């Protein structure tokens, strides 16, 4: 049973039967999915954003990201969010991995993209987005994770995936 419908997601309350036969009531958020983008300026530099998140009431460091619109291809979402949040178009965008954001409470599946061969054309953030993009060396981004300056899970996954897959 749908108990809430919003712009980005719906909340459901359902009785489900588990593989072991146990039945339980389940509350979950049905989400269209989202994308995370690693804008790679050169071999050692990426773009992060400092963004105010009203849900937690503070500024955090993140990779650009956004929700897939109804009927939108995730690659199109990645290109749109890259432009909106940091002002770049990418000549090449590659999907690296996909993962569930928090499978205990939401169906949200996030796709991680690497954006390369960037061209700056000007940021176009939504009016409700308070974003400050900045360039950072990948080693410094790793240190920001170690120092607990980066607390956002999708960003931690993105940076560590980039380092691991590209052996940086």
UniProtKB/TrEMBL annotation:
EC id: 3.6.-.-
BP-aspect Gene Ontology terms: nucleoside phosphate metabolic process; ribose phosphate metabolic process
CDD domains tied to this protein: NUDIX_ADPRase_Nudt5_UGPPase_Nudt14
Matches recorded under SUPFAM superfamilies: Nudix
Cofactors, names only: Mg(2+)
InterPro entries per UniProt: NUDIX_hydrolase-like_dom_sf, NUDIX_hydrolase_CS, NUDIX_hydrolase_dom
A GO molecular-function annotation: hydrolase activity
Coiled coil segments of this chain: none
Annotated source species: Sulfolobus tengchongensis
Protein's recorded name: NUDIX hydrolase
Domain Nudix hydrolase: 29-158
Domain of life: Archaea
The entry's keywords: Hydrolase
